[in-house]
Design goal:
- With about 400 residues, the protein is mainly α.
- The chain has one domain: Up-down Bundle (Growth Hormone, Chain: A).
- The protein is built from 18 helices and no strands.
- The two termini are about 15 Å apart.
Length: about 400
């Protein structure tokens, strides 16, 4: 791959995840602390990300596959998203915030699948090269987390304004991306294709069918962390919580560098199980940590993020690309986004918001039974460890080409 192309793909990942990191980490803190939303309401707003992941990637992915160049779709999505993000910062009612966030997420979340598709189209060895490009997205998340933490704007609407500006920058940058026209073989319109059912052909393979179900279940406990960790750390008095939480993305970078080594030696099932065990352990650490003599527990819980996150999302993206027919790769990336960011996280958003209200006896930080909240999350993750250990029987690995195969593709 030419160096200039590698740089452009890396910057694409950086900017795309910079936009997401602007608002996602502090959203729960802003909604519950500043706008005074209940846990259930905050969970519902977080659920808009999941709803969008279930609705939009199929349609946008299929448009990119069949009718429009992928980079042009990205430009439109980010410009429209910038307008909506600016509007979110101007309102405070639950109904309005919910509606605008749902609209924004419909624009943003297809870009995750599309950036993956763009990158995977040009790499020679996906297991080796994709992690090295994708971790620049993590750098983007780290950068904005440090900025927001240093500015101390976690409880304000300013992160939405930062995200709007970054979206405009991303849209302009997409003009520099390589042209990715639709695949000619897929010009014929069918209702099945328009509804995204073409990608469901992958479920005929038993190993991928079980993987999809396992991904849904595994993403449920993820949402507890994403929705309320920043609020929890602020409530118990951790200074610069957003900045400290970027340590999780730093660990994610380190784990991404190790992923090619892990892919060659560990099965998909093994990777999934290790990730779930890490989720269960990190919730125990959050439950028993404090900002005084047990601050190390908070740091360790955050640093486990590399294992917790990469072992699901990166593995799922590569495994999906590996199983998909070439002409359906955009739609296939939309499908894995649907079952993880969509179905799994939608269920998790509802459960996490309801759990927070269940473990709340009044108003104020002192009324939240955070230990009960985190221990229940840990128990849920451990149940999934047992279920996946029993029912996920695939022994497959993420395949990477042998050196002679890579050489052959470059000649």
């Amino acid at each position: 791959m030419p160096l200039s192309l590698r740089i452009r793909l890396s910057l694409m990942m950086f900017l795309n995840y910079f936009v997401w990191g602007c608002w996602y980490v502090t959203l729960g803190t802003y909604l519950t602390t500043t706008l005074k939303f209940s846990g259930t309401q905050a969970g519902a707003v977080f659920g808009t990300t999941a709803l969008a992941s279930m609705i939009s990637p199929f349609f946008v992915g299929l448009i990119a596959d069949r009718y429009l160049a992928t980079e042009r779709v990205m430009i439109v999505l980010h410009l429209a998203g910038a307008v909506v993000l600016y509007s979110v910062a101007q309102v405070s009612g639950f109904g309005t915030v919910y509606g605008l966030m749902l609209l924004y997420c419909l624009f943003y979340f297809p870009t995750i699948a599309l950036t993956n598709s763009i990158t995977l189209r040009f790499v020679k060895d996906s297991g080796r090269d994709f992690p090295l490009i994708r971790f620049f997205g993590t750098f983007g998340w780290i950068a904005i987390g440090l900025i927001i933490g240093r500015m101390r704007i976690e409880t304000t609407a300013k992160p939405f304004l930062l995200a709007a500006g970054a979206s405009v920058v991303m849209a302009l940058f997409c003009l520099t991306l390589p042209h990715m026209p639709p695949v000619k073989e897929q010009k014929t319109f069918t209702l099945r294709g328009a509804l995204g059912f073409d990608a469901l052909v992958m479920l005929k393979t038993s190993s991928y069918r079980v993987f999809a179900v396992a991904s849904v279940l595994a993403c449920i406990p993820l949402t507890f962390y994403f929705s309320f960790t920043n609020k929890y750390l602020n409530d118990v008095g951790v200074v610069n919580a957003a900045g400290k939480m970027t340590l999780g993305q730093i660990s994610e970078v380190g784990m991404m560098l190790l992923m090619p080594f892990i892919f060659r030696r560990v099965t998909v099932k093994g990777i999934l199980l290790m990730g779930l065990v890490a989720w269960s352990a990190r919730y125990v650490l959050l439950a028993f940590g404090n900002p005084a003599d047990r601050m190390w527990m908070f740091y360790l819980a955050i640093l486990l993020h590399g294992v917790c996150y990469d072992f699901f999302f990166m593995t799922g993206q590569l495994y999906t690309d590996q199983q998909a027919p070439p002409h359906l790769r955009n739609a296939a990336q939309g499908f894995i986004t649907f079952v993880t960011y969509g179905v799994g996280m939608f269920i998790g958003s509802l459960l996490s918001g309801g759990a927070l209200d269940l473990f709340t006896t009044g108003t104020g930080a002192e009324k939240h039974n955070w230990m009960g909240f985190w221990l229940s999350s840990s128990a849920g993750a451990f149940v999934l460890v047992v279920l996946i250990a029993l029912f996920f029987r695939s022994k497959g690995k993420i395949q990477t080409p042998q050196p002679d195969e890579v050489l052959a593709t470059t000649l």
